[in-house]
Amino acid sequence: MAAMDDREVVDTNEERPPSLAAERLVVLAFTASIVAGLALAGVYSRGGQPQLEGVLLAVSLGGIGIGMVVWAKRFLPGEEIAEERGPLGSTREELLAFTETFEQGEHAIQRRSLLLKMLGGAVGALGIAALFPVRSLGPRPGRGLFGTPYRPGVRLVTVDDDPVRPDDVSIDGVITVWPAGSARSPDAPTLLIKVADADLFGARVRRDWTVGSIVAYSKLCTHTGCPVGLYQADEHQLLCPCHQSTFDVLEGAKPIFGPATRSLPQLPIGVDGQGFLIATGDFDEPIGAGFWDRGR
Amino acid sequence: MTTVAPGQGGAVRRTVRWMDDRLGAASFARTALKKVFPDHWSFMLGELALYAFVILVFTGIYLTFFFDASQAHTTYKGSYEVLRGVEMTRAYRSAIELSFDVRAGLVMRQIHHWAALVFVATMVVHMARVFFTGAFRRPRELNWIVGVTMLILAVFNGFAGYSLLDDQLSGTGLRIGYSIALSVPLIGTWLVSLLFGGEFPGPDIIERLYVIHILIVPAAIAVLIGAHLSILLRQKHTQFAGRGRTEDNVVGERVWPTYAAKALGLFFITTAVLTALGGLAQINPIWVYGPFDPAEVSAASQPDWYMGWLDGALRLMPGWEVRAFGFEIPNPFFPGVLLPSLTFGLVYLWPFLEARVTGDRGSHQLLDRPRDRPVRTALGAATIAFYGVLFLAGGGDVISTTFGLSVNAVFSAFRILLVVLPAVAGWVTWRLCHELQLRDGPPPADESVAVATLSGEPDDGRGEEHGAGYRGPKTESEAVGEHN
Amino acid sequence: MTSGHRHWIAAVTVTLAAVAWVSSAAGSSPSPAGASGPPAPVAGADTAGRQLYLTGCSSCHGVDGAGSERGPSLRQAGGAAAYYYLSTGRMPLADEQAQPRRKDPAYSPAEIGLLVEYVASLGGGPRLPHVDPAAGDLAQGGVLYRSNCAPCHTAAGIGGALSYGRAAPSLHSSGPLQVASAVRVGPGQMPKFGSETFDQEELDSIVRYVQHLRAPPTPGGAALGSAGPIPEGFVAWFFGVGALVLAVLWIGKRQDQNRGRDG
Q1: ipTM value of the model?
Q2: Choosing among C234, C238, C261, which should be mutated to test the B contact, i.e. which has the most B CBs within 10 A?
Q3: What is the pTM of this model?
Q4: Which residues contact C102 (CB under 8 A, 6 or more apart)?
Q5: A112, A286, B339, C175: which has the fewest Cβ within 10 Å?
Q6: For an interface test with A, which of C153, C192, C235 has the most A Cβ atoms less than 10 Å from its Cβ?
């Protein structure tokens, strides 16, 4: 109780004249809220409509809110009170008493130091044991990140599992393919790009890995793995919409702008006996975003 | 035990007596009702975040009744013609059904999403208020740490939330998150395997994020809110210097009834703003983005605003990475792991860093006016400029399209601005603070007198207990002295 | 009136005119077969089309589409390319260095029909496609659009940035035949999707979906430009946080304003 008496009134609002207008405002706000609340029930029972629901909710809640604030500002006591803070920290005696009590118990415990050490060991072992269930959360990374399902001789197929002939790619066109049997495999989407003439390919394109003027690159950006879906046919550039890394298709998809540091891996491709495009091997490096030991 | 006045009538009195018989809390409760809160508009910013959190919990509970956090594949056969027959996960399907077939489902989803954006935004605004007024100083360092932790949790939970729906945009965000986690040296591959249950997209991520999003993080935030408010009640709120306001008192309104009515009114107003947005402004139209397919992406893929600075940092980072002996530190590590770690590390440490640099280790109950601490204010402005540029860079492609500029020119410009703008903003702010101090002239006579007399003794007599560093509002001569 | 103002009005006028023209073209285009096509060639199209070509196009593309140093040869352009460039106003081009942008077409639908015939007669290249959006499947169109078109034009079709100042245009003013022609031609930076990539049914579906995107349902309210989280973030800050800060200022403002500097 003593603390209460320390408060002193610093300032009071002037005796405010009863304001009819303010009271009307509060009544109006609450009325709007009531109407909106009821209307909401009506809208809902007639099937609902998101815009009306939102507006009516806003009016019904806002009516209460505005009404309460006006009420508080105009009709509730508004005097300013000064309250002593009082000290936050404890007194020296209290602190000493606490420390003393704590240390007494501490000494009693520490007297059996062997037991204490054993307890520490048991808790530590339990802590280590508690880590093991974490291992259940996922498989060992293994070599999965280093390869894709592409194997020598596997056909390239579209999203609908259809094999692709070289003529199925338009000049200046691009299609996305996967290895047959693993269509939609998340680490295998590959871009087949046909340019007007194989002579356009620069030195960084491995020519023995192309078919005519078709070259295949991993679709996954070497920065954070977004699909590099924007092919600018005129400039022969691939642009990643996530972070704007830009790759030069005619120069082995080397990065020419943005944060990516590595070229998109090129897929070795060929044609099988029936004229369908095949992979002649897997990518010769891990695809997609980098990781610590990808070079090992 | 304190007894209530022995009046017989009144349900309130009977209830109070019943409760007090069991808890004996009447005295404590009365203290709470009579508690004094300083009233300044800026002290209500944190309340806004609290209310947004309450709305998030309520709308979120509603959404959980309909959402199906499963990555199992299914074919949509529902009422939205544009997606009929399309393959998708059950998570995405349930979000579509929630949006089109559940009455009030779409408005709830949109209120939830808007509330999330506003929740983090009001936290940042509140944090800026605390920073610029020096409210983080002793004895409030602990509450600063609690607050920053809540901010990190809120940002993370926002990301987790919009990643659940398994639309194309959220999947793109998850993939970038995966690649950032993958980039951590030594443990990256293990980290993603344990988080995602395998290589991207992995079989488990949505189920796991769901538990984290609706249970673990909200519970943690709720506990921290409790701690935040308990510490606030224990320490009592800070206040600005002014007539009758000293280091030793709190001047303001009592909680009951006026302050409580205003606070409750503000809660309803916050809800009203968010429901209005939820009804009138479309947010995250997942039916436009389509179901997630790891081989696809849409142009203009952006994260929600509070992740924008990270995405911007990823975009602005030059194409460098560290390679040696067959090992490498991939490029996304620097903007994606190092930058946020440094950012939040520095934010956590700020109260202690500032105390060390200024040598001011005293307790402070009176707030600084930003202009009276030009260096801190300038650093704050520079920080806002730095993260502001990163945020804009996160939408660099949208900015390029909107204004018909070259993407490459825009990003090159942002790289320069990232260095130049914080410096300029800091310098301008610093100058402005000094100009404002000069323009203030000496503080009004009655005020300085009031501070000096009501506080009982002159500042320098307080010793270590109260603000050795507190000097009150500056006089003109002091301001000039510092200026020169 | 400020110049910015005038700019606006000009833009609006151009847009309105374009919309009016496109809708009139769309209205007149369905041929008896039910598929959209160019206006039927009139008698003597050869000479009339050639006359138009000689006056308007040959200075860059050369006599009989041979090309010059100012413009490429049109011998392999095909009718689809002629229709796409002329009906979207991208040709004729004022500055041959600039990326062609959509504007008011310089020719009437009938004149465009003549020019399309003439360019088609010059040699190979994709013919003016037939397109019947009603025959397409909206959901299939959505799937194809999101995997093939959204990477550049965005999921909502508002257009997106490409590298070095290039941009994929918004599709919100593109008519069915224009979309179909663009798919087949691959104008500018756009990859080409021939009939070996998309068959007629797939083409119809894509066109139908693009038409759907021009005025999609927005059950959630204002679409905010359909530009995703960036405008959403700005709305959250300006309208959400803005309104709340105003509320807080109002609540924090005392009836009597004479209390201390900060009271």
Answers
A1: 0.91
A2: C261
A3: 0.89
A4: C18, C88, C89, C90, C169, C173
A5: A112
A6: C192
